[in-house]
# Entry
Amino acid sequence: MTSFPTDLTTAQPVEAGTDDTPEAPAAAAAGALRSGAGGTWQALRHDVGAMLGLGYIVLVTLVAILAPVLTSISGWTPYEFDQTAIDPNLGGMPIGPWGGVSAEHWFGVEPGSGRDIFARIVYGARVSMSIALSATLLTTVLGVSLGLMAGYFGGRVDLVISRVMDFLMAFPALIFMIAVLSALPAGNRSALLVVVISVFGWPYLARIVRGQTMSLAQREFVEAARAAGASGTRIVFREILPNLRSTIIVMSTLAVPGYIGTEAGLSFLGVGVVPPAPSWGQMISASVKWYAVDPAYFVVPGVCLFLLVLSFTVLGDRLRAVVDAQEGR
Amino acid sequence: MPRFLLSRVTSGLGVLLLVCLFTYLVFFALSPDPAVQICGKNCTPELIDQIRGNLGLDQPFWTQFVQFVVGIFAGRTYGEGVSAVDCAAPCLGYSFQSSQAVWDMIVQRLPVSATVAVGAAVLWLLAGLAGGLLSAVKEGTFADRFITGLTLTSMSIPNYVLALVLQYVLVVKLQWLPFPQAVPFADDPVQWFLNFVMPWMVLAIGYAAAYTRLTRANVLDVLRENYVRTAFAKGLPPSLVWRRHALRPALTPVVTIFGMDFAGLLGGALITETVFGINGVGKMAADSIARNDQPVIMGVTLLAGFLVVVGNIVVDVVYTTIDPRVRVNA
# Structure
């Protein structure tokens, strides 16, 4: 249930609870045969929450892609210090209301350094999105392929993979991630973050893929393919994998907010993205010292992060509801 | 039953040994030079040599690992002669930076972490069960949709953001709560309680949301059972049916998750403790990261692994006593 047993609550995937029951994979697999992508989109389009979430995700993605363009319009890079925007007599407090919001600095400036918060948010979006999406991609590839292997081939393969999954899921993941990240050299932290998050993330998807594969492997169409002389690889990738599509999409969408939260949390704790590269979690971490005098400093990255996690959570939740409904559960 | 317990304990020990090996491997094989890392700032070549000798870093990996594992059960001594340091029985390592055995450091801070965990657990269980039950019996109504929306929101708000918002609003702006400061329970119970209110809330909210969803889903499943229809049909008041017939069987999965979550938290709520400056195991781990005090990080990792494994075993045992079907399957 809890993906990383810690107080990092955003790392918890949304679970309806019923997914753990043994009959759920069978029902889900059966439904997946009937549901089409078109129907799912039609149902989602009329859901206000899902569309708002999708809108915000698209916005953040665009902002991340267009970061250099946006900062050239706003006129400040994320690394430039602006001594004129802070008041040295007040310990470096931003000048102006709401943490120094002005025509010059749209989201205000960092107290102490005077760096432009808008620029840092925009570049921080790159970090958050790229790490979370890469981790999701890697987790999905690992989880799906290992889950398929365990479910289809069974026997010793299944035994080994299942044991590894049990071990990883019983592991104190967050503390261990911190331990690993703090022990390894800070070279390419982003890539390291992706790998570490994925290593502990894939069992949650693989477990479900494995269950569904096991029940799909018993179905007539798989038997027919086998009788027609199809190879094991062909059956797995051509016959079984397409039927897992909706499950994989739902599970991956639901995993993204967890990874965004994990990245931000690790950066918050100082083992994530290395400064001065901006990351939302790290910005919030830096704002802790200033929260009483300059609340805008934590509100801006906090709200951006919260909305992004919420958007993915709501979208994934609605997507699941739609897929479940199509499966007639 | 004893056989079942034995198999669980054996597999639990296996997991723990793997956790141990994994952590040890990372720290003493992958990191560039553990001695330099442990040495930290203000380091001299002599100090590095001394640490290297003390830890037996000149010996092969397996020898070091076996020494470490033996040390956990039998205790060990680092170094020789006058500079020797004793590390008594559950020796999880020795922090040369703070000149203290890691186990002693953990034991000092464990009560605080436990206080945070217990208070939060009470909050999230109450909120989660009540919210989930209400949401389920009012399925499809405004109340249900409101609670569902609330859970999604609560799940999405990062701990540390909520902590800052609460501190700003409740302490700085409204001044309803005092600035958190360490006060022992015996000195001033009221102040002590007020200090922990925010950490409890911050820690509980995410779990409360997850438990609400879990309870809702389980109660909805149970409400479709025949015996619930029978209970309604024989004229029992709905509130009684909901509490006795619907909530109770729905509790079993909650117990499972709770065991693991709670055990994990006993080993320190890293972020919550850090944000509120509570001097528990979690904050100690976070501080050790900043100081690169690796024996402490490793000790806390092992403790957390141990607690999760023990939590799992306890849950399995409790499970078999609540639900006889599990016993047959095992």
About this structure: Residues 113 and 249 of chain B are 31 Å apart (CA to CA). Chain B touches chain A through 69 residues (CB under 8 Å). Chain B has two domains: 32-91, 102-329. Strands of chain B lie at 76-78, 85-87, 94-95, 100-101.
